[in-house]
Amino acid sequence: MDFTGILRNSLLREMTHKATCQTCKHFANFASRRSIPSRDLPPLLAINACVYNEENFKFWQDSRNQTFLKPQIELHGQIEGTDDPEKAEYELRV
To answer: What's the confidence (pLDDT) of residue 86?
Structure first.
């Protein structure tokens, strides 16, 4: 999985929670998935990659010893569980 995929999955993740079932009135596990259209994605994403030294930087390199982070990424949101054809572009800055 690439960085864009990891970032997208963290923004549009499935969450589980316990709540009282409206039908049987018992506690039950419920799942919900966040759905964000591309136009509603934040204009700026601040991500702390914790790259303070060479040792930490190695985690951000792939197996071919190339950088895992690209200078620019494109994210597609979701509309009611379907991938949004519109995209949001982000530029990597240090």
So the answer is: 94
Alpha carbon distance 62, 68 (integer Å): 6
CB 66 within 8 A of CB 2: no
- The rounded distance, in Å, linking the Cα atoms of 65 and 83 is 31
- CA–CA separation, 10 and 28 (whole Å): 24
Which residues sit opposite 29 in a β-bridge? 18
Query: How high is the mean pLDDT of the chain?
Result: 84
Q: Residue 11 corresponds to which tokens in the numbers above?
A: 């923004």
Q: Quote the CA–CA distance of 43 and 32 in Å, as a whole number.
A: 24
The pair of structure tokens assigned to 37 is 């259209």
pLDDT for 63? 65
Q: pLDDT grade, residue 46 (50/70/90)?
A: confident
Residue 18 to residue 36: CA distance in whole angstroms: 23
